[in-house]
Every structure is written in C-alpha cells, then in structure tokens.
Write a structure and sequence with these properties.
InterPro entries: Ribosome_mat_SBDS_N_sf, Sdo1/SBDS-like, SDO1/SBDS_N. This is SDO1-like protein C21C3.19. The chain is α+β, with helices and mostly antiparallel strands and 114 residues long. A hairpin with a 4-residue loop joins β1 and β2. It is globular and about 30 Å long.
Amino acid sequence: MTRGETTQSKVHLKGQHDDFLVFIDDVGTYKKWKSDKSIPLAHFISSFQIFLTHKQGVQGTLDAASKGTLESEFGTSDQDEVIKKILEDGTMQTMEMPSRQGVTNESMSSMRTH
C-alpha cells in the first residue's frame, strides 16, 4: 500500500428527512454482527457518532447529527439505538482513499540554514 493509502467504510441510511452515516473500522466483524448481535459495536465502528449529509447521499458535507434530528427521524435520541438501526437497515459503502502526493521529510532539508 502506498504511503497514506487506506480504505474507508461507512454505512449509509437514507432517512425521511436526511441521510445518515456511521463509519466502520472492521468490515468483517460488522458482517458477523449482522447475524450475531452479541458482538459489541465497539469492536467494529470507528466512533459512536452519527453523521448526516444534508440529503447529499454518501458524498455530502458531514455534520454530527443533533439529538433533535435523531429524535425526529428515529423516534429516539439514544445514539446506540440509532447506530444499530443504521447498521441494520443501511447500505455499506467502501471507498479507496488515494495516497498522499508529494515529498516526505526531504522538503524539510531545504529549509535548514547553514
């Protein structure tokens, strides 16, 4: 893998009022969780944070979803419950993040004064 190259996985759920995302660290464990709910969420999600994209699908600007937004869309502001709903009913998306371009620390040598 090239320096800085990574994959990013997220689960997207299109709600009535907005689009919601939860980021996944371990796709294999997430897939196991779908059939075995005894697996703790902490074993495969990035953070216990729900993002919304202002109806822009998976590519929109991400903002943290407020408790009011969650209550309006899901009938609860309990983040654990909403995350479970997104994970159960949403669609997983994985995208390759390109490697960073440019020189590493070599550019620092030109900044030294002699």
